[in-house]
C-alpha cells in the first residue's frame, strides 16, 4: 500500500519565483516526465511552465478530464501524475485507483481546490501525495525531490516536505 502524504492547507499567493531553481530536481540530468490533469486550461499552462522552468521536469502531456487522464497515462507512461481531485468524467480519486492498478510505479499527486480541506480526503486511497492547491507551487519542488530521491544520485531529499499519515 502506498503511503499517504498531506501538505499544507494555508492560503498563499502563487508566485513563480526562480528560487526553486536551487532544487536538486533542477540539477537532475533525467527529468521527471509528468502528466498534468486539470479542467482549467489556464491553470494547466501555469503549472506546466512552473514545472519546466523551476523544477526541471518535462511535461509529457496534459488532460482536462478523468477518462483522458487514464488514457494518456497508459499511452505516455509518465513518472508522475499531478491531478486535481474534482474532474469531469471520472474524479481524481477514481483516476488514481485505475492508474495505480495498471501502473503502480507511476507516482500520483492529487490537489484539492483553493480553500478546500485537504484532510477531508480519507486515508487509504492510492495517491502518493495530497496537497492543497493553495500550497502547490511553494511545496512542489520539495515534494518532487522527496518522491524521486532514489532517481537522483547525491540528492538529499527533504523528508519534512511530506507529512505522512
CATH architecture: 3-Layer(aba) Sandwich
Order of helices and strands: EEHEHEHEEHE
Structural class: alpha/beta
Treating each run of at least 4 consecutive H or I residues as one helix, how many helices? Answer: 4
- How far apart the termini lie comes to 13 Å
Number of strands: 7
Average pLDDT score: 76
Low-confidence stretches: 1-26, 153-165
> CATH H level: which superfamily?
Response regulator
Largest sheet: 7 strands, mixed
Note the main attributes of this structure.
single chain; 165 residues; alpha/beta; Rossmann fold; seven-stranded mixed β-sheet; disordered N terminus; disordered C terminus
Describe this entry's structure for a reader.
With 165 residues, the chain is an alpha/beta fold. It has a single domain, classed as 3-Layer(aba) Sandwich (Rossmann fold), CATH 3.40.50.2300. It has helices at residues 41-54, 66-76, 92-102, 136-147; strands at 5-7, 33-37, 58-63, 80-84, 107-112, 129-132, 163-164. A 7-stranded mixed beta sheet has the order 3-2-4-5-6-1-7, with helices on both faces. Helix 2 (66-76) runs parallel beside helix 3. The longest helix has 14 residues, at 41-54. Residues 1-26 and 153-165 have low confidence and may be disordered.
Walk me through the topology:
Layout: E1 5-7, E2 33-37, H1 41-54, E3 58-63, H2 66-76, E4 80-84, H3 92-102, E5 107-112, E6 129-132, H4 136-147, E7 163-164
Parallel strand pairs: 1-6, 2-3, 2-4, 4-5, 5-6
Antiparallel strand pairs: 1-7
Amino acid at each position: 500500500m502506498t503511503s499517504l502524504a498531506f501538505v499544507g492547507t494555508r492560503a498563499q499567493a502563487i508566485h513563480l519565483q526562480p528560487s526553486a531553481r536551487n532544487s536538486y530536481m533542477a540539477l537532475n540530468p533525467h527529468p521527471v516526465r509528468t502528466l498534468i490533469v486539470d479542467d482549467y486550461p489556464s491553470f494547466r499552462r501555469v503549472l506546466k511552465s512552473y514545472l519546466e522552468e523551476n523544477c526541471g521536469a518535462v511535461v509529457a502531456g496534459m488532460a482536462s478530464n478523468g477518462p483522458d487522464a487514464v488514457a494518456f497515462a497508459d499511452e505516455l507512461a509518465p513518472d508522475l501524475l499531478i491531478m486535481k481531485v474534482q474532474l469531469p468524467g471520472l474524479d481524481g480519486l477514481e483516476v488514481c485507483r485505475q492508474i495505480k492498478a495498471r501502473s503502480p510505479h507511476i507516482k500520483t499527486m492529487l490537489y484539492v481546490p483553493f480553500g478546500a480541506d485537504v484532510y477531508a480526503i480519507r486515508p487509504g486511497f492510492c495517491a502518493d501525495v495530497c496537497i492543497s492547491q493553495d500550497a502547490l507551487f511553494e511545496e512542489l519542488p520539495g515534494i518532487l525531490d522527496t518522491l524521486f530521491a532514489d532517481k537522483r544520485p547525491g540528492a538529499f531529499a527533504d523528508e519534512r516536505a511530506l507529512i505522512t499519515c
